[in-house]
Design goal:
Strand order of the largest sheet: 4-6-2-13-10-11-12
Strand content: 25-35%
Distance between the termini: 68 Å
Number of strands: 30
Structural class: alpha+beta
Number of helices: 18
Helix content: 10-25%
Bound molecules: dioxothiomolybdenum(VI) ion
Radius of gyration: 27 Å
CATH topology of the largest domain: Aldehyde Oxidoreductase, domain 4
Largest sheet: 7 strands, mixed
Shape: globular
Length: 731
Amino acid sequence: MQFDTPVTNNPIDRLKVVGQPIHRIDGPLKVTGRAIYAYEWHDPKVQCAYGYPVGAAIAKGHIKSMDVSGAKKAAGVIAVVTAPEVGDRKKGKFNTAKLFGGDEVQHYHQAIAVVVAETFEQARAAAALVKVDYTEESGAFDLKQAMQTAVKPESGDPDSGAGDFEAAFRSAAVTLDQTYTTPDQSHAMMEPHASIAAWDGDELTVWTSSQMIDWWRTDLATTLGIDKEKIHLMSPFIGGGFGSKLFLRSDAVLAAFAARAAGRPVKVALPRPFLMNNTTHRPATVQRLRIGAERDGRITAIAHESWSGDLPGGQPETAVMQTRLLYAGANRMTAMRLATLDLPEGNAMRAPGEAPGLMALEIAMDEVAEKLGIDPVEFRIINDTQVDPEKPERPFSHRDLVGCLKLGAERFGWNGRGRPGLQRDGNWLIGTGVAAAFRNNLLLPSGARVRLDREGVVSVETDMTDIGTGSYTIIAQTAAEILGVTVDKVSVQLGDSRFPVSSGSGGQFGANCSTSGVYAACVKLREAVAQKLGFNSEDVLFEDGEVRSGNRSVPLAEAAGPDGLVGEDTITWGDLSETHQQSTFGAHFVEVGVDAATGESRIRRMLAVCAAGRILNPITARSQVIGAMTMGAGGALSEELAVDTRRGFFVNHDLAGYEVAVHADIPHQEVIFMDETDPMSSPMKAKGIGELGLCGVSAAIANAIYNATGVRVRHYPITLDKLIGGLPDVA
Ligand code: MOS
């Protein structure tokens, strides 16, 4: 199905099942331990061996020699596979650094060996006996230094603009020119990367933890040098990803080589202290914002420049993207510059680009509002735009940022907000902050196969993944709605490369795209049912487990017949996202308390108002947003990968040193969804929500801390050392 015309009415609009607050259909499996995650899969007939990775202990250079004799002699060891031994391997197209193979070291903890033993403990003990001799080369590890020689990236649209920024900025009544920094961040999802690989002749089966089944399968085939069709990849349950599992990772590659060497299935999980340097991270940024406005609050000039670094061949963190679209202003420019860094590979982490970009832009907006003496909610409303400000002929498909800000201000109790540093509650300095949320709505093709069996049960098969987001549930709801059955009549199978290729989970495109693919397949199935019954497919109705046309009505089970019926299709996208800008919007409001003596910040309450098209399931959507708000709290207050700029690695590479926000950090969260649909986004009229929830959160917290203390911190995370010197005198 090609989606190229805005949708009017369709069966989803009945909203008997879609849009209803249905609990996760996979919830019981998860809470009873029956959902099988990658590392847990087992076939009682097969005894898996355990693989333990060895990572490079230098950041850049070559392996001169490796001595694995001690490891090979250790108790229980079955095989040791080294990178020089497997030779130079082609890397997958989605990876910047290679995952395994050859003697070159591109970053610290790049995998250079895997030790296979009878038990996990034996493999780990033996891995410690591997001796490596390196030729070490100097590298660039400090973004502030490397950015001096940063270049314009070759692809990815690094520059944009309209009007004459410099002239307009010079003549603006009020101006701001400030630089903000965001640190390297780690995905830190619960489930580490893990894979089990089993060879049967030249055919490989891999159980893994992947957001994108087809990307992984393709890249694994490339790296192993085998035909993609020979690989069967499964990832039915995933304990979080946040972008860390978008692209093939070393666990799958190591498991495949290890299983081949061991002659039996091998499981490899990346140990937590290994994972943060071995896999990807969100790159640090340096961002300069210049904003010029007239006294009435209208922005006349806005410029956003961002510097980030990555390994050679890598990509910039696209932190300026939202600034191209979020606020009006005739004169504007954005630019991204990329430095070469020899740190581990930077790549996508939840809302890549917008999340760190808004951390800077939305503090800058707060600062300009203050200079103008205009309330920051009002300032954002004044600068709303209904068209792409760089290409005014391009309207937004649907945009209700203003509605989010107004409703949020009302529900949060924004009016009556005090001046910075003046509200007290005992020892706490109290403040409130606001930020806009913005994230684009991306469209990827997505396929599905739907079967109707003789019992009237509908089974959906797609290689879509559920990374904890609720894909199983919203896909069941979609099929149930279109086919007129209840959710308990739908069985959903995901995360298997034998199923049609879906959008996968990423970029907050998964919910809208994968359900649209299921929609397309269900339409095909409806046609097959109608045709079989000789019904005119135009006026046929699927309702209450029956197919109806005129005065005839047939139970679905009967219509399916003994052999059942199948519908399969892929949704593809026309040019509606080119003619119209598709984005999602929101407003975050936060109240903080800052300890007047120590400078410790505590979040007291958070509110998010989101405008993201149709909400397919308010329970799972809310879960996405409160999780994202929690992530934004970590980003504001504690999360930072500390770079050792001499040796080139992230020092705090475990969950003790890398501090994510936890339940105790978040006393009260509220989420409101605007009641809206976007007929240009898909037949579902839905858009993404999972990343929108994060966008702007950290800046709202930063702005609340400023309101509480009068101390403006422009460098994340906002730790107490950055506040304590500027706190008002404790009376
Ligand atoms: Mo997301 S960073 O595209 O998983």
